[in-house]
Amino acid sequence: MSKSPAPTGPAFGRYLDAEKQTTLLRFITCGSVDDGKSTLIGRLLYDSKMILDDQMDTLASDSKRVGTRGGALDFALLVDGLAAEREQGITIDVAYRFFNTPRRKFIVADTPGHEQYTRNMVTGASTADLAVILVDARKGILTQTRRHSYLVSLIGIRRIVLAINKMDLVGYSEDRARAIEREYREFAQRIGLSDVTVIPMSAIEGDNVLEAGTRMPWYRGPTLMRHLEDVEVGAEDLARPFRLPVQWVNRPHHDFRGFAGLIASGRISKGQRVRIVPSGRESTVERIVTADGDLETAIAGQSVTLTLATDVDVSRGDVITVHDAPLECADQFEATVVWMHDAAMLQGREYLLKIGAQTVLATVMPLKYKLNITTLEHVPAERLELNDIGVCELQFDRTTAFEPYSMNHALGGFILIDRLTNDTVGAGLLHFALRRSQNIHWQALDVDRNVRAAQKGQRGCVLWLTGLSGAGKSTIANLVDKRLVALGRHTYLLDGDNVRHGLNKDLGFTSQDRVENIRRVAEVSKLMVDAGLITLVSFISPFRAERRMARELHAAGEFFEIFVDAPIALVEARDPKGLYRKARQGILKNFTGIDSPYEAPERAEIHIDTTQLTPEQAAERIVEHIARAGALTVAGRGGA
Description:
Elements: H1 11-21, E1 23-31, H2 37-47, H3 53-66, H4 83-88, E2 95-100, E3 104-110, H5 118-125, E4 130-136, H6 143-155, E5 159-165, H7 174-190, E6 195-200, H8 224-230, H9 235-239, E7 243-245, E8 248-253, E9 256-262, E10 267-269, E11 273-277, E12 282-289, E13 297-299, E14 303-308, E15 319-322, E16 328-339, E17 345-346, E18 350-355, E19 358-371, E20 378-379, E21 383-384, E22 389-402, H10 409-412, E23 413-417, E24 424-433, H11 435-439, H12 449-456, E25 461-466, H13 473-486, E26 491-495, H14 496-499, H15 511-530, E27 534-538, H16 544-552, E28 559-565, H17 568-574, H18 579-584, E29 606-609, H19 615-628
Helix pairs in contact: 5-6, 13-19, 15-16
């Protein structure tokens, strides 16, 4: 079967005009493993005559060689491109395909059915207007059917097609189809899905895909293709207020300065008054520039460059809005997170968060609950594992313009990125700003850190000693403290064991408790530096991410990471508290260096090799280092 060639000659202009007027529908197929998603897409491509001759030859050859239909055309092979998928008969990656009919263009994402690849399904659903959720007529509604339905609801897809597939394997039974429909509609109502179209079909035989066929006369609804052609899309985005997240400040020469981005919602016209968020400055749209020339009006979904009548400060990450419907700004939110990484999401840990065109630092604050996808029960949790869905609070490092995801996907949806590996580890959506973020503001104080430092004749800083238990951190920190006090300096020592008697007495030794332990101490050390103190922090602090977080609370030159390096054999031989012995016996769980990892510093300011230096020598080296760095003096005052 060949795809019909495009017209030539005088008809070509009319053909291009018609193509411009044809609307686009993005949809996904999802469901449990082996429900027939790839076969359905292959059938759509085949029946809509979108397969070229060479593709047909390859399909026929592959069907005989690796197909599952005894040599007959196996339509799934048009989509399952990965070798691993063909060998296992499942979809792993998200496969995107384009096809069109005379009435509409389509981009379809075939998303994985296996639970292990749920994160890939979320990726495919993020830009879709409609979801086709397949169910094997023999198996009915499964856990993965519910999981995918909840995810598409969460992501904001409101138009659902429940495709009851493989009706040929249940004798095209109306009773079976009706029973599955009743069960699904009851679940869909519980998760807020009301626009559900149920279509019984056989993707392999073609029933109710493009044509109705004669084997299900009891079904009087549309075929899948007719429904996909008729469903309305895009009206919601146009009805909402104008929002343009600025992706790029375009300044090719000194006479032109424009702000480029994809319009997330609404429409904008020349001469219209706009507001820049978060700055609040206002101006008027002078030009709407596109690659095809200037426009009088632009609408949601178009990529444009706006020039403004006045010279206002606009940067990447800002949002241009209509002046009479501005965005809300906040730095604390309630959010739903879908966790997509093998390493768990931990409370108190910082991640990079990308929202719109802006990237911020976000700290995971209390995790309220995670969702039992089968019962929809809210389950108490302290962490999210791979494929978990949970609701938590997020603290941003700066005030950010946003809209709830239910109103604007572009300004309410986000991804989380691991700061060390740059892996995308989660995706989520903002529900609302926390009230406390609106009620709490910085209070201006007349006595600042510079005054306090000058009063003490020193520069406040943190000496952060990290290393295995028994490496000698507390001993060395105590010696440094005594040496600095003898020099007349003002200090305070935060020791890991001592702090757990008070401030952190509620924390255990799980990974998430360790993260919270360091987060609290880092914030305390920040306050002490603000008070002008030289603050010694002696904590194992096993994770690089949290030590980096602590460093970034301070100005450049105020944080000194000190790696007290001792081999495991040496600290086990010392074992003054008997902790290593208990850990080896399995009595003490989550002990650093035994069954919990220690991530050594990669670029510590001071490296203390305890096999080469005595504690006294180590302390002297630390004092000398911070003296050279200027921590023991302020302008006009003497040093050590």
